[in-house]
Design goal:
The chain is mostly helical. The chain contains 20 helices and no strands. The structure holds phenylalanine (PHE) and sodium ion. One of its GO terms (cellular component) is membrane.
């Protein structure tokens, strides 16, 4: 590449952008129901263990990979992993490992974001409906209301397109004027709105029954129920760490590729983890769950995925100032989602830039791509008149949960073993703190990869038991209408993986052809 690579404008901008990348729907929508479902306080044990064994080491590896690749002009994962791997294996083998990493990262950024953009659209729609009183009529059932929402083409498509346009616009304006500006506006607002909602939640009193207080809700999520703690909940905790920290996706690396060669990564990586965990364990845990508890009691803890869009609207309309607080809640979700989706969007544009395209044109192409991959997600409920979201579920089971972990394994092996000692040196260059040798050996070389392998074995076993591996997966066995949607999802995933591999392998070969041919 001839032109100079873009850089972050300021340290603050970088940290807020990285926090924006990590803090997403995972914190406010996914975390509360995962914790409630998987043992409350007992969930915190595997959760914090995964944070230390997987989250922190991988975050350091990813910042390292990104800054290292950026030095060679790369913003995508395939070439970054190639550059690391060639320190330890033959260039041809390294190109295949890089190709695999690039293929998985591509499938995550295309397909995960393909449905995530829809959920962002829903949150914008619901912010609007909260303000305008759309679901405030107590005669309507909020569950039925949500179903009719996702089956209403006008609402779904309008808010989805608005979300996509914001993403495209921010990415098109570039790292400093687009991504950084959006993060500087939205991230502080997320924390401010979050604090307002926590205060409102904790002052709810006991509106329904004397012992259904918000504090009892906090108790519910924090007090350990050891009997609910098992292998499956441990897997859920580790999966949540991957998802919430944006690990195994390639997007932390993409943002880190805009660092200068001597910028600190150790403290900045820690800051990203801390800001995300603040927005997850403190804010994600202190709003939705206690509100639900105060109004619905222990039963309300079972609302699962529908917590944000069904249980909470039902409560907002029952509480004082509910229209405003409902809007604040959905705006938090919206901003958290947007700042994460920008990272995925930017990844794909960076990939097109590596192929020689201009940023503007790249942004328009990615806009079109997201319309195509997002279409089945939106069309399924509209056309089948169902609300099972089978296409989304199938994509999420693989791309949003399983692939992240596989990619994490490739990343940590490329860093810890293939690049090895040189990776530690690279990691510590310019660092305000230094990662000690023992941490590198104990975690990045041993504990982190072994834990990821155990996680993969466990998940594969669980997937087998849940019937996800079957030709017709169990969750749609009895709904013939949905089977084609699941099969379509599978075909799309296979195509995207193959295309991603070929594209990455060719990019690597194109740039490093000599050494591959002589190696
Ligand atoms: N870390 C993000 C979250 O918590 C995950 C994500 C990033 C999802 C980018 C989609 C796009 O929501
Ligand atoms: Na997150």
């Amino acid at each position: 590449m001839t032109e100079k690579r873009e850089n972050w404008g300021s340290k603050l901008g970088l940290i807020l952008a990285m926090a924006g990348n990590a803090v997403g729907l995972g914190n406010f929508w996914r975390y509360p129901y995962q914790a409630a479902k998987n043992g409350g306080g007992a969930f915190m044990v595997p959760y914090f263990a995964a944070l230390i064994i997987l989250g922190i080491p991988l975050m350091l590896c990813e910042w390292n990979q990104g800054r290292f690749g950026g030095k060679y002009g790369h913003g995508t994962l395939g070439p970054m992993v190639y550059l690391q791997a060639r320190e330890g294996v033959k260039p041809r083998t390294a190109a295949i490992i890089g190709g695999l990493a690039g293929a998985i990262a591509f499938s995550v950024t295309v397909l995960l974001n393909g449905y995530y953009n829809h959920i962002i659209g829903w949150t914008l729609g619901y912010s609007f409906l909260s303000l305008t009183g759309g679901y405030m009529d107590k005669a309507v059932d909020t569950g039925a209301y949500f179903v009719s929402y996702i089956q209403d083409p006008t609402k779904v498509i309008i808010f989805w397109l608005i979300a996509l346009a914001i993403l495209g616009f921010a990415v098109m304006r570039g790292v400093q004027k687009g991504i950084e500006v959006v993060a500087k506006i939205m991230m502080p607002l997320i924390y401010v709105f979050g604090i307002i909602l926590i205060i409102r939640t904790l002052t709810l009193g006991a509106p329904v029954k004397p012992d259904w207080t918000p504090i009892a809700g906090l108790n519910y999520i924090w007090s350990p129920r050891w009997s609910d703690l098992n292998w499956t909940s441990a897997l859920a905790a580790a999966g949540q760490i991957f998802f919430t920290l944006s690990l195994g996706m390639g997007i932390i690396q993409n943002y880190a590729s805009y660092l200068k060669a001597d910028d600190d990564i150790v403290v900045s990586g820690f800051a990203t983890v801390s800001l995300n965990e603040l927005a997850e364990v403190i804010m994600g845990g202190s709003i939705a769950i206690p509100i639900c508890y105060a109004f619905l009691g222990p039963e309300g803890m079972k609302s699962g995925v529908g917590l944000s869009f069904i249980a909470l609207p039902n409560i907002f309309r029952a509480m004082g100032g509910g229209q405003l607080f409902g809007a604040l809640w959905f705006l938090i979700l919206f901003m958290a989602g947007i700042t994460s989706a920008i990272a995925m969007y930017n990844y794909l544009v960076a990939m097109l830039e590596e192929m020689g395209l201009q940023k503007k044109l790249g942004s328009v192409i990615v806009f079109g791509l997201y319309i195509i991959v997002g279409l089945p997600v939106g069309l399924e409920p509209i056309l089948t008149k169902t609300a099972d979201l089978a296409y989304l579920t199938e994509v999420d089971n693989w791309v949003g949960s399983y692939f992240l972990v596989v990619l994490g394994l490739i990343e940590v092996i490329a860093t810890g073993w293939l690049m090895g000692g040189k990776a530690l040196e690279e990691m510590n260059r310019g660092g305000y703190w230094k990662v000690p040798q023992w941490f590198f050996t104990l975690f990045i070389q041993i504990l982190t990869p072994l834990t990821i392998i155990a996680l993969l074995i466990g998940s594969t076993r669980d997937y087998y038991k849940a019937g996800y591996l079957k030709l017709i997966p169990s969750f749609v066995e009895n709904s013939p209408k949905l089977i084609p949607w699941v099969q379509a999802a599978r075909i799309v995933m296979i195509i995207v993986l193959i295309a991603g591999f070929i594209q990455t392998y060719r990019t690597i070969k194109g740039k490093y052809i000599k050494e591959i041919e002589t190696g």
